[in-house]
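Good morning C.,

I know you're traveling, so I'll keep this short. The sequence:
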Amino acid sequence: MFTGIVEEIGEVTAVAPSGDGVRLTVHGPAAVSDAAHGDSISVSGVCLTVVEQGEDWFTADVMKQTLDMSTLAGVDAGLAVNLERATVAHGRLGGHIVQGHIDGTGEVLEVRPGAQWSVLRIALPDHLAPLVVDKGSIAVDGVSLTVSAASDPSTGSGTGEAGSGTGGGHWFEVSLIPETLAATTLGRRVAGDHVNLETDILARHVQRLLAFAPTHTNEGGSR
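The tokens, ready to paste straight into the viewer:
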């Protein structure tokens, strides 16, 4: 479990095939400062398990499903990544509850720089759009952010593949303060980049509960 407060920007230093997945080696001194074998570390929003480690690096396996759902597909050495250690029960929840379970990816449509901040508009798959609400929480590349604007529910009619940043035109915006721009990889994003998305866990549970809600019919048989 994470909070979406990035602790450092790390770097992928090696990528090796591992069955139908890959094994990543990541440079991250802060992330491994108190890590142990089996600990969880968020890598740009993806929860990975430490299998080996050194003084300033760790290695983790990434299975095919994770590659299919996230921007780690096609990852190469030299990629900058956001790193966060799993939160502790007595720590402060500085962001929001983040599981590190990616829902899919989005595409940066626009970056609007301002005097003190930048606004990112990000396209998201249609099936994720109902889970994103103005002033709600979302994790983008593992960064806890507040949605500052969202497309109208009537926007778009595409299906949007799971894990894909394409859909029928749905989007949301986040406003990034200077600290976020400097302390995370989001400050380097440009239009066309793809980012990992994790929607709010409470919204996902509500959506699932509603899917099982009983439907009622009147005597005439109409709903």
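Safe travels,
E.
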